[in-house]
Amino acid sequence: QVRLVESGGGVAQPGNSLSLSCAASGFNFISSGIHWVRQSPGMGLQWVTFISKDGRTKNYSDSVKGRFTISRDQSKNIVYLQMSGLRLEDTALYYCAKTGSTYSTMDVWGKGTTVTVIS
Amino acid sequence: QSVLTQPPSVSAAPGQKVTISCSGTRSNIGVSLVSWYQQVPGTAPKLLIYDNHNRASGIPDRFSASKSGTSAALDITGLQTGDEADYYCGTWDTSLTTIVFGGGTKVTVL
Prior knowledge:
The complex is a heterodimer. Chain A is an all-beta fold.
């Protein structure tokens, strides 16, 4: 079945780095864009970044632009989120999701991986 | 403060109907397709509705959605206890050039 599995979350200090992975299976990976969406404890959904199916287009929210980098490895069916310059407000559950009928539709989501930034 | 505005909560008795509104602007809902997501506490969001009104695979027809101008709405009829969850609208904002979500609406079945 279609599946996305996030990994790489953990605890980090402000200013440090973490790298998240989103492993995809059960669908044609090279035909789908991938989003990262995060959710701080008790809060709503916040879009973080997107990478197109061919990896050529990347978009970032203003809150992470210049600090986070998204990439994908087509041979491994994995999308990466390299996070640097971490801030306390980056603490959240990070989900990856694949695009559906359009760029802005997220039709399958992973279970998420938790990032905690504490000083 | 979310770009899209949703009521924090709605509630109704089992079998009744609830409507969740999602208000935006000409740069987002006014020109882009809207999706709706259901998030049961402790689980990942799940796509309910895409392209304004199309139900995702496996979603019962008790869930329906519409869009008019800069607002969208999600209706849930025949409310069931299993429908208790947070519901989010989302779309592309052409001015911000980002995906935007509503703040979420908690549905409670009385």
